[in-house]
Amino acid sequence: MHVTNKPILLVEDDQVDVMTILRALKEIHVVNPVVSKENGEEALLHLRTPGVERPCIILLDLNMPIMNGIEFLQAVKADENLRRIPVVVLTTSEEQQDKVRSFDLGVAGYMAKPVDYHRFVEMIRSIDMYWTISEMP
To answer: Would the pTM count as exceeding 0.85?
Structure first.
């Protein structure tokens, strides 16, 4: 996703989805390392660990145990050191309220996870293309 090869942080509790996303990234030749965390609390701990490299992007599921995606977004966007990391929500949630709250909290994108694998790859490709040309501060 970036020439600098910064990691991608994937916050997702469904292992099948994790494998699908990793497979799709590999298929489109994204070489950035992927750090995977099962919930928002684990992801926040990771982001706040001294010496951990900042991800170039966070791919976030909303429906997770312990700390869900909305709670994670609230914490990240309230943190001066983390708020500029772009977050793209990948979710099965059809809740309009989730969409509104995500954008209120400054997400860079909100995408429904397609069931079909080839559509999934195209969705990941579109995220990659966007972040490859988008200039970050």
So the answer is: yes
